[in-house]
Structure formats: structure tokens, C-alpha cells
Design a protein that fits this description.
OB fold (Dihydrolipoamide Acetyltransferase, E2P), Rossmann fold, 4 domains, five-stranded mixed β-barrel, five-stranded parallel sheet, 20% strand, elongated
Length: 438
């Protein structure tokens, strides 16, 4: 078994933890200890219970959003991702939100629902639909006249103006929001869009709670249309994000992930057009060279001579056929004569002569047919001989012609230490003779 460096082992464990959806953005309950606010604004503390302890870090950007104050001994609920700090190899919780226990009922409800749906397989990758490469018809589900909608329109215009998008405004916060979103998604799914964008701007866990509805999760899971979410900010995760086919960190990020960049597409099309043009020109040039090469073959250079030979031989065969036809006519006359004599003979002799005449007629016909077949075989043989003596056919077997100043050189004409040319079927070479072997 190959050995691992310390870094390789720690980095491998870090990736395994970060890719485990069961502990991604999970909710953990415990007591704060060793709480410390660093000069940088980051919070460092431990979370413990009666059986275990784990180190925690909350970065300044998250800490500034908290309304409550915290101290050692506080019972809290934290939303965090489990990972490893590679420099020390220590296991840590990277906390994105925290509430005093008793005020974190939503946290617990979120975590319980997340675990339930995870076990049922609603987050599994095999159920995710493939993102359309070039979406032409997109439905946008978001709040009416919201900043998120304005940003989405701007991003569509900037990245992929070819897309025809339709906005379906609905409630994204407060009572009835989840049902309004479900009703809108079911309506859109039957129309036939390439993709659905479910978006909302940032907010607290209470503001985003409409997207943590269990019925909404099943609705998204059962959609036939590809759906991407862009809900809240990068650190915000909802149940809808986990079930969706794809999750983007923000509403504008959803459009950026969903659509190709028009400038990249234009560049790619231009490149393909140029490559296709070059390929066509190259194909034409190669075919023209091949055409010229075929025209220079002896068969084409002497085509009239070869054709005339075949015509002459064909005339010869026709003459022979006519000769056989004359003989057949002559035999027919004989048959008539014999037939008259047979009538004068007895019935027995007549039957005998008729049979004899029939056999002779069949024999003559068979002879004629056989002769024609034999001559055809001979003709095929002559054609094969013509092919065999064709210079390209001979060169194709690996032979070469020896030239001196465009004159073919025979063996008795060879001299030592002279420049000669060898012409093969597809190439020509210059060589220099040395001496005749004894």
C-alpha cells in the first residue's frame, strides 16, 4: 500500500467531510466554552455537552449579522458545516448562524426536516435533471418588483439575451408563501419551459422560511422541468436548495450558472466556422490532387486505344454468334427435310427419327451456348491480363521503375557510381549505384 503524506491524509479527510451532505449546513446544540472575540472580528469558541467537545469558528461577516450577544455557558443552536483546519489537522465547526437555545425552534425544525428528506433520498444526485446547455424558454419565480427580479433581468440581458423569460410573481415570504410557490411551480411545469429559476433576495432564517416547507420540497422533487435556486446569500441554505436540480448562491448567480455567456458562444461559433472552412478547403484540394493523379494514369491517357480493342473483340464475338446462327438455320432446313421423310416412314420409324432430331437440336444448342460461355471466359481472362500488365497494378505490388534521365534502364544498362531514379506507385526516389554484386 502506497504511503500518504500528512497533508494528503488531512486534505482527503477534509474533502470527505465537506462532501458529506448529512453534515453539510447541519444544526448542532451545545454549550459555549472558551469564547473569544479576535481582533479580526472572528469568533473562536468550543461547543460542548456532557460527553464531547468540538472547536468552532464564526467569521466576522456572519458574526456581524447576529442580534444576540453570547458568552461562556450559553446554551445555543448553531448552523454549521463540519470540516478540518489543515494547518493543525483539527476538526472544526464553521458556524454561519447561531441562536440561544429556546429561540432556535426554526433551526431544529429545519434540521429535522433536512435529515428526514435526506434519508428518503430527495437530495440524491441520481434524481437531479441535467442543466440545458442553451436555454431558450425560462420561467422566473420570484417576488413581484423585487431587487432580485431587477438583477435577474439585467443578468439575462448581459449574458444570454436570446432567452425568452417569463416572470411569475408570487409571495416569497410570510403566511401562504409556500402554497403560492407550489401552485406557481405546478402551473409552470405543464407549459414546457427549458428551465425554472426559483429566486429570492437575502434575509434571516425567518424571512426565508417559506422555502423550508416539506410540501414544497416534494413539489420540486416531482417537477419534470429543470429547476435552479438562487435564494438568499452564499451562506444561506434552504430545503428547496437541497432538493433542486442545481443551487446557486444568489439570484444573479442562478442566471450566471444557468445561461452561457453570449461572448463565449460567439467566440466558439466563430472558431468552429473557421475550422469548418479550412476543413472544406483542404478536402477540395485533396480531391483535386487525386483527380489530377487519376487523369495521368495510362488507362485514361490511352483510353481510346483500349476501348477500340474491346470494341474490335466484341465485333469478333458478334461475328461468331452470327456464324452459329447461320449454322442453326442450316440445321433447321435439314430438320425440315428429315421431317418430310419421317412422314413417309412408318409410325415407329417416325418416333425414332423425331427423338433423334430433337437430341441433335439440343446438342447443337448446347454447343452454341458452351462456345459463347467459353469465349466469355476467354474475354474475362484477357481483361484480367490487361489489368495485370497495367503499370500501376505492378507498382502496387512493391516493384519500381528505374530511370536515367527519364529513360527506363534495364539490368544490362546499369553502371557503377551513377545517379538513378526509382519510381514507385506513390513516390519517387533518387539513388546512387555502387557496384554489381558477384
Amino acid at each position: 500500500m502506497a504511503s500518504l503524506s500528512v497533508y494528503e491524509l488531512v486534505h482527503y479527510l477534509k474533502l470527505k467531510l465537506e462532501n458529506d451532505k448529512q453534515i453539510h449546513n447541519c444544526v448542532v446544540k451545545g454549550e459555549i466554552s472558551n469564547f473569544h472575540r479576535h481582533n479580526s472580528g472572528h469568533w473562536y469558541f468550543s461547543l460542548k455537552d456532557e460527553k464531547a467537545r468540538i472547536a468552532c469558528v464564526m467569521f466576522k461577516s456572519y458574526a456581524l449579522k447576529l442580534k444576540d450577544s453570547f458568552k461562556d455557558g450559553d446554551q445555543v443552536l448553531v448552523k454549521a458545516t463540519v470540516s478540518i483546519f489543515e494547518n493543525s489537522g483539527s476538526l472544526q465547526l464553521y458556524v454561519s448562524d447561531m441562536k440561544l437555545d429556546g429561540l432556535g425552534d426554526l433551526f431544529m425544525r429545519f434540521e429535522l426536516l433536512r435529515q428526514k428528506l435526506f434519508k428518503l433520498g430527495l437530495f440524491n444526485e441520481e434524481h437531479k435533471k441535467i442543466k440545458p446547455a442553451y436555454p431558450e424558454k425560462v420561467a422566473v419565480v420570484t417576488g413581484d418588483k423585487s431587487a432580485a427580479l431587477s438583477d435577474i433581468k439585467t443578468m439575462f440581458k448581459k449574458r444570454w439575451p436570446f432567452a425568452k423569460y417569463e416572470v411569475y410573481p408570487c409571495l416569497v415570504q410570510g403566511e401562504g408563501a409556500s402554497q403560492d410557490i407550489i401552485k406557481t411551480l405546478n402551473k409552470i411545469d405543464s407549459i414546457g419551459y427549458d428551465a425554472i429559476v426559483l429566486a429570492r433576495g437575502g434575509g434571516s432564517i425567518e424571512d426565508l422560511w417559506a422555502f423550508n416547507d416539506e410540501e414544497l420540497a416534494y413539489t420540486i422533487y416531482n417537477l419534470k422541468t429543470f429547476l435552479i435556486t438562487g435564494i438568499g446569500h452564499e451562506q444561506d441554505f434552504t430545503i428547496a436548495d437541497f432538493v433542486a436540480d442545481l443551487r446557486a448562491p444568489t439570484p444573479t448567480g442562478a442566471i450566471e450558472v444557468l445561461t452561457p455567456d453570449i461572448f463565449d458562444v460567439k467566440t466558439r461559433v466563430s472558431d468552429l466556422k473557421m475550422r469548418l472552412k479550412k476543413a472544406i478547403h483542404l478536402k477540395i484540394e485533396l480531391n483535386l490532387l487525386r483527380y489530377d493523379k487519376l487523369l495521368n494514369r495510362p488507362l485514361f491517357l490511352e483510353k481510346n486505344y483500349l476501348i477500340n480493342q474491346k470494341i474490335q473483340y466484341l465485333d469478333y464475338l458478334i461475328s461468331k454468334l452470327l456464324h452459329f446462327r447461320v449454322k442453326l438455320l442450316q440445321n433447321s432446313e435439314k430438320i425440315k427435310y428429315l421431317r418430310n421423310n419421317i412422314r413417309k416412314a412408318s409410325m415407329q420409324q417416325c418416333d425414332k427419327l423425331s427423338l433423334d432430331l430433337k437430341n441433335k437440336k439440343d446438342g447443337l444448342y448446347d454447343i452454341a451456348i458452351k462456345k459463347i460461355k467459353d469465349e466469355k471466359i476467354r474475354l474475362d481472362h484477357l481483361i484480367e491480363l490487361l489489368k495485370a500488365y497495367d503499370i500501376d497494378h505492378i507498382l502496387a505490388k512493391g516493384f519500381a521503375l528505374v530511370y536515367r534521365n527519364d529513360e527506363i534502364v534495364k539490368e544490362d544498362m546499369l553502371k557503377a557510381d551513377e545517379e538513378l531514379k526509382l519510381r514507385f506507385r506513390q513516390s519517387a526516389w533518387s539513388i546512387k549505384t555502387i557496384a554489381k554484386e558477384k
